[in-house]
Amino acid sequence: MFSVSPFIPNGSIEIVDASNPADVRLRMRVDEGDNPFIYYCHFRAAGVRGVDCRYSLLNGGDVLKFRLASHANLEGRWVNTGVMASYDRRDWFRIPLSEKDGIVTWQHCPDYDQIYYAMWPPYSSEKLLDLMGELQLSPRVRLEVLGRTVGGRDLDLITVGVPGPRKHVCWVIARQHPSETMGGYFIEGFLRRLTAPHDPVANELLDRAVFHVVPNMNPDGTDMALSRANAAGVNLNREWIAPSMEKSPEVKLVRDRMEATGVDFCIDCHGDAQLRCNFLGGPLEIPSRNERLSGLFYGFERAWAAASPDYELGHPYPGGSPDKADLSMAWNWIAERFNCLSVLLEQPFKDTSWRQDLVRGWSPQRSIRFGASLPAAILGVVARLR
């Protein structure tokens, strides 16, 4: 029997009509609360072996209503991309799609009985728990729970290395926006390299620094398959000036720990559905901007470009650099508060424009490898962080 279902881990889709596989009509869910947003879908289709199927996202064009004002002149969300598909939830490939009159469609005749479709492959809470269980076997790693989210879930912190009076304090956070799942894969690649016992880059870096990693800032949003909000309908990346335990405990808990440890370096990992590059934003527009911070940022960029061809220098701030930094965003607030190198990473949903994989595009495998290049980039500037 042919069926379409969102009732899978991290599933998200509204079914309008799935009675005919040649004309499946769907709607993407919109986050509720003060931060309405539409960004993501993930569902399973069954009974599809050898069946010509056509799927339509009736409100796919609505993503343009919610995009940032600075992105207004960028390439459209659905241009030069495709929906991701997988038979085994491990290997994901792209199916071309098209948009017309606000409706996004794709056609596919699967080779097997069941298939999963997503805007980008999910990174589930269960997958993260498996990773943390593996990592804690390393003598370099300590795990703890910072506190509870709005929905009562654990907010996990991973510490790698041993703090010391002469060691730099580095923070890595990801997935304030739960649909930007590439952050999960990036963190996995980063942590696997950082904890590799015989990796010379990791060993040298941990001689100089300790790392505090929040692999998922928004576990409620992950489990509820939301686009950008937490369980209270709040965009966490607009809460950094005045977070509260009622609406944004995730930010409050992390901020409080940062105050206790200090911060010499931070990277906040996101994804952007309109970009075709890995983009970095730096502490260049904060009120206390200075030559030391700008020099550190450009040095970090050069070090990362040397460490990985998947970071290409020269991509401008989307829509142009703002005159003033928005301090409600994590990387800006952290840079201003601690006078440190704090950067924003945006990975693509699509693919990079200069090095393309026509089958998979920007994929989990590439995101993992890109994360594994971060230690070398940090090592390039760690001596100058303070």
Task: Produce the secondary structure layout.
Layout: E1 3-5, E2 14-17, E3 24-27, E4 42-46, E5 53-57, H1 63-66, E6 82-86, E7 93-96, E8 98-100, E9 103-108, E10 114-118, H2 125-135, E11 141-148, E12 154-160, E13 168-174, H3 182-194, H4 200-208, E14 209-214, H5 219-223, H6 249-261, E15 265-272, E16 279-281, H7 291-307, H8 330-338, E17 341-348, H9 364-379
Parallel strand pairs: 3-5, 13-14, 13-15, 15-17
Antiparallel strand pairs: 1-4, 2-3, 4-10, 5-9, 6-7, 6-10, 8-9, 11-12, 12-14, 16-17
Helix pairs in contact: 3-9, 4-9, 7-9
Compact summary:
The chain has 2 domains: 3-118, Immunoglobulin-like (Sandwich); 125-384, Aminopeptidase (3-Layer(aba) Sandwich). The chain is built from 9 helices and 17 strands.
Structure characterization notes:
This protein is an alpha+beta fold. It has two domains: 3-118, Immunoglobulin-like (Sandwich), CATH 2.60.40.3120; 125-384, Zn peptidases (Aminopeptidase). The protein contains nine helices and 17 strands. The protein has helices at residues 63-66, 125-135, 182-194, 200-208, 219-223, 249-261, 291-307, 330-338, 364-379; strands at residues 3-5, 14-17, 24-27, 42-46, 53-57, 82-86, 93-96, 98-100, 103-108, 114-118, 141-148, 154-160, 168-174, 209-214, 265-272, 279-281, 341-348. The strands form three sheets. Strands 11-12-14-13-15-17-16 form a seven-stranded mixed β-sheet, with helices on both faces. The chain has a five-stranded antiparallel β-sheet with strand order 1-4-10-6-7, with no helix packed on it. Helix 3 crosses helix 9 (364-379), helix 4 (200-208) crosses helix 9 (364-379) and helix 7 (291-307) crosses helix 9 (364-379). It is globular, with a radius of gyration of 21 Å.
